[in-house]
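// run 5 | inverse folding | seed 20
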């Protein structure tokens, strides 16, 4: 088991974490899936797979394709809905004894608000990660328009969604942003103004891959989200950009596979970091990173992990 190390503790909104290492939404199920593989208690926090108000069947298969230094996915937020989550998944999660952050997704603002209100009353939820990298289906009329805009691609929509969530809960709100925008800092600023306590950067980069034998897309949904080491330099830049222009805690992610990757994200301004794709390849990588962060702090004679945050020397 990883040793508790006070020097690694961080705070995100009202959530105190004993270390800054989290697992990213959609890559760690609801915790139980990894219970036999790692010591869940050692993690800083768990972010659950995104849930929606009602059940969703998700996208057409295949939903995963391997690419150079990364993977594409188009799961389509398959889940059983919030009530099933509270009844079937939350009891296990709350017993672990670490902060549980529930990721929510919706296609309209009213549903975001209802989800937040429901989770606010649920025992064992420490915070809500609002996955606004979802298409907004309510504010646009034509199908093309609907497909074009995610909440997190429009600062006005992003603001409205978070404002609605804020009005429904006192839990810590973390907003998960898409990197598929021209200027991620203006979206981060909008969600901060709406009351978000922190941002998670980044969700996947949109991409596609083709099977040249069949000339068919590798994914049933044609396009999907790219994750893994291929996106790390771009994700790191998103963190650095937001760190330098918006005063809000950042949970950095995107291609973190090694302790050194995690340290890079913290040096660029992340308060905490999350592992996504790495969980599929090395299920216990998060635990190794927690240990190594402790060694790094000690061997570099830093007071604590906070002394590393944003310490990029230029
Ligand atoms: C298979 C898969 C499923 C994912 N599902 C979700 C999800 O449900 N909600 C969400 O906010 N992000 C989801 N993500 C995005 C990750 O949480 C993370 O932001 C992204 O993969 C970048 O980190 P990584 O390169 O370490 O994987 C998913 C990623 C993968 C690979």
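// decoded
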């Amino acid at each position: 088991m990883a040793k508790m190390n006070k020097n690694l503790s961080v705070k995100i909104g009202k959530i105190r974490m004993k270390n800054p290492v989290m697992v990213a939404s959609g890559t760690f199920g609801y915790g139980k899936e990894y219970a036999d593989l790692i010591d869940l208690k050692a993690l800083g926090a768990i972010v659950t797979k995104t849930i929606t108000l009602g059940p969703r069947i998700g996208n057409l298969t295949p939903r995963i394709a391997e690419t150079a230094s990364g993977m594409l996915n188009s799961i389509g937020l398959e889940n059983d809905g919030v009530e099933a989550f509270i009844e079937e998944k939350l009891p296990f999660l709350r017993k672990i004894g670490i902060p549980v952050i529930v990721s929510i997704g919706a296609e309209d603002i009213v549903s975001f608000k209802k989800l937040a209100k429901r989770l606010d009353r649920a025992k064992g939820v420490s915070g809500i990660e609002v996955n606004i990298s979802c298409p907004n289906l309510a504010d646009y009329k034509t199908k093309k328009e609907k497909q074009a805009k995610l909440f997190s691609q429009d600062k006005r929509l992003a603001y409205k969604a978070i404002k609605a969530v804020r009005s429904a809960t006192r839990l810590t709100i973390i907003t998960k942003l898409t990197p598929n925008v021209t200027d991620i800092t203006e979206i981060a600023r909008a969600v901060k103004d709406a009351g978000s306590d922190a941002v998670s950067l980044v969700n996947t980069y949109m991409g596609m891959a083709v099977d040249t034998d069949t000339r068919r897309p590798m994914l049933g949904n044609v396009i999907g989200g790219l994750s893994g080491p291929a996106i790390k330099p771009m994700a790191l830049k998103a963190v650095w950009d937001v760190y330098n222009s918006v005063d809000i805690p950042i949970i950095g992610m995107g291609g973190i596979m090694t302790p050194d990757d995690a340290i890079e994200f913290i040096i660029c301004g992340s308060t905490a970091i999350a592992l996504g794709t790495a969980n599929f390849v090395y299920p216990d990588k998060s635990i190794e990173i927690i240990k190594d962060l402790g060694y790094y702090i000690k061997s570099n004679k830093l007071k604590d992990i906070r002394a590393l945050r944003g310490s990029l020397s230029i």
